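Response to reviewer comment R2.3. The reviewers asked that we include at least one raw input/output pair. We reproduce the pair for YfhO family protein here without editing.
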Amino acid sequence: MEDVRKKWKKVQWDNEITYKTFLTYSVLFVLVTISIYLLFWLRGYSFIWSHDGFNQHYPILKEFRNMLVDFLKHPTQVPELWSWQIGMGGDVVGSFGYYVLGDIFAYLVVLFPADQMELAYTTLILLRLFCVGIAFLALAKNFKINHIAAVTGSLVYVFSGYLFVSATRHPFFITPMILLPLLCLCVERVLQKKSPVPLILVICWTLVSNFYFAYMLAIMVCIYTVIRYFTHYKKQGIPLLSTIGKLAVYAITGFLMACILFLPNLIAFLGSSRANGEFANGLWFYDLSYYLSLGKMYITTESAGYWANLGFAAIAVFVLPFIWQYRKKYPVVFISLVLGLGMMLFPFFGALFNGLSSPSNRWMFAVALPVSIGVSFLLTDYKTLTKKDMRNFLITLIIFIVVSWWGPNFNIYQPILLVPLTLMLLTFFVFFLQFINLNYIKKKAYNGLFYFLIIMLVCVNLAYMGNYMFSKNGANKVQGQLNSGVVERKITGLYGGADKKIDKSSFYRTSLSSGYNGFYDNSDANILLDVNTVNSFYSITNGAVADLASELNNSQFRMTLPFGQMDNRTIFTNILGTTYLFARDDQAGRIPYGFKKIDSAEIERVDKPGISHTDVYESENSVPLMYMNYHTEDRESYEKLSPLEKEEALSYNAIIDNKDTSKREYKSNIKELEFETSIPKVNGKAPAKLTKDKIEVSNAENSIQFKLKNPEETKNAELYFYIDGLDFTPYTFKQRKDIAFAKDEYKTKNMRYNYYRNNLTKRIKEDYTLTAKTSNRVVSASQVDKSELSGYFKRDNMLLNGGFSEKARKQVSINLSGLGTYDYDNIKIYAVPFDDSYTKRMQELKKQAATDLKFDTNKVSAKVSAKQDGVLVTTIPYTKGWKVKVDGKEVSTEKVNTGFIGFSLDKGLHTIEMNYETPMLKAGMVASGLGVILFAGIIVVYHLRKRKNKTQ
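Raw output as returned:
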């Protein structure tokens, strides 16, 4: 026992950072990690999120491993730049660059066997998390922070709320928390006249890693550099202009080196469906509930909404008064905290950091750095704390207890706060006792005991936060993860073997009946199954095909999911070249006209427990990959058509920008149906009122019925409900309150109080769902709220497909879920008949298909026999990366049918050769080459100057 005491006394708690610091951090990281994530193993869950983890991150990582293995086996082989497995076909660099191509951790996946991908996925997440703390320690060493203070700060940084949320949901979101401290450290080194090599390399890494986060990090590091220069280095006589010049040269060098991936990814983003949108979704302020949640968000893993996540250990509360009191000593932390905490108050800054789009606060990972550095400074300087500091700590403690516990719902009972607030009190108690000991008792410093208690409190705090988030007795977020060992079974279970029952000997595309597998209808796991599905779910989506889906008013349209299943509309589905359709056997109302059942398979559902049968359908009317169309229509006249008329036009003419057209005249087959309306009462009251330009909904259980005057017109037709000029104004708080209080459940004062408590501080959302029902199908379209950060856009009109049926349908009934007033211009119901004339029209296009199709890496070749001058139409998504040669001569391409590549072709027999090259890839390679040369020159110049300075 005596030996233990002697060793304890010899521990140098105040030493500077050494290798022992990194070892201590490593041990504590492992212990805290086990205490949090062991719960996943005990409850049988994996690190793969059942939404984006399964639908995007896991399959993309697995496919990336396949690409790496192929490259290692055949290093001289031409790399695949275009894949037919990415939706309608897509650029590999542009699609995968956002996720894995520039992620140095992702390359380690090649070290794992193919059957251990779940282990690889988990290991890479944990490795990233570990490196977050290592990067923090590297920066802490620059600030002369002591050993244990640095370790404590690193743990607060690693196990912050942002990473608790994102680590197992979006693994690559971890990387910017590694890069930020490294970038700050490298800037410090340059300002200290040390080697610029690390700065250039980290800038390059940042830009290739993910251009989305690179944009944020660039802003953050520029702010940091300005603050650090004017608060510290200017006083040391470091000249401003030469410093700017040097940093600019190094930044440009890093940028040039990264161009090989950065430029193609930037071009892909600018041409994507995400490149446009209303700034900050039109918001000037957040909900009142958001602001009232900030206190709780600071010390728990509970988000305030809008991707606002902080979640620090209780000790971080005392950083705020400490840094305020010593703002002149620590100006960079003070200014960073003021800016960070200030910017989270306004949607403007969320949108600014989110690429000038929606107010997503994913940038808040940056706040963790000054807070964690502040923790380290606090523990380094704890011996100098004064009576005033203790008073400020106590005041801050009381404020946090009141603000966080009161919260947005004015709810005193909040289990999530019990332990954090208790630990906050204990942390204050430890500081206070040490303050009394140092300033009044003045016996021994007890540094070791103080540091030991603090770091134990921090570790217990972090372990509790993680356990509360994932425990079934807490937030139970682990329930959103896939069970361990099931991911591969779920991937193969998407089709359950039905995908093996289609003919893959020639080019084909597939789709699903909408709702086939719930959310998993849109999984990118399709890239692993060789099914050529028309849909895709990538953050960067081809903007041209998204424009097509939007102008046809696809009810399933989302920014990252432009097609979905095209609402199973017949012409839309065929015009994309969909050869096969997979549908559950209970979804007969979702089968487009002309799709014939050819086979079936029994599958285990992946969206919910149970077994279902999958039927495989083949279309007799889908267009081929390339076909001649001798009839063209100019875009100007096309734009004047309604969405259904545009869809119909695509089956007759090729839509081009050129006004010199040879339009095929036709009589529209679309029938506008007459109807009468009625609204059944609910509990003796009308749930809605309908006028010629307004619908007022006062009860969500409404059913507005449109009874067709001539049901016979719906035979052998698709039936559509269309509403345009749509604008929703939700009921005010008072109107909603009056409706609620009229119900029996709100008769008591306590229930009315609860209503106020739960609703008074919340912004009234502007979302709603319009559901249309016919005798053979129920279909919905939604307007999401402005708080929906990835999917918000304003829907001015909705077009819903009630399905194809050979039988007559008597009515269409709709339900509007949002309470309020819906202004509109028109409500129309259409029937689109299908018969042999449609089949004949589509067969004509199929007969004009290119022949002798051959596919090679990044290449398609074919032969075309044109009976007359016309346009060769393809169903290849439009991008400038495709170069076309006709009979050996390069020809210019044009955008045809809004979303696809086409080009003019003269009468005669022609040989077509199409070659793909990622846009700006060659330019990026040249730029990167120049960057490497410039980088080498900078190294040489730096070492020559260093040698010269030594000789002097």
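The chain has 28 helices and 32 strands. The radius of gyration is 31 Å. Further pairs are available on request from the corresponding author.
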